[in-house]
Specification:
mainly beta; Big_2; 41% strand; 8 strands; 0% helix
Length: 88
């Protein structure tokens, strides 16, 4: 389950994503790196926080269970005839 999401931090003066400090309230659910990219770890909820010059903003993250893996076969049916032996 390696789903990611890029978060950005902005002030009235522009994008400060690269200069913000990033954190996750629950790293067992989601982590966030210094660029603001959050990565899902396990199902649950976490809060992603960006801090910049005394300002703080948050975003809620929900990691859901992945769909169960399924297997399909194609084609779903086939008509076959036995091979005719070669005459010698």
């Amino acid at each position: 389950m390696a789903s990611t999401r890029q978060f950005t931090a902005t002030t009235n003066h522009g994008d400060v994503t690269a200069d913000a400090d990033w954190s996750s309230s629950d790293t067992s659910v989601a982590t966030v790196d210094k660029t603001g990219t959050a990565t899902a770890v396990a199902p649950g909820e976490a809060t992603i926080t960006a801090t910049y010059r005394g300002l703080e903003a948050t975003a809620e993250v929900t990691v859901t269970e992945p769909d169960p893996e399924t297997l399909h076969i194609s084609p779903e049916s086939a008509d076959l005839e036995p091979a005719i032996p070669k005459k010698k």
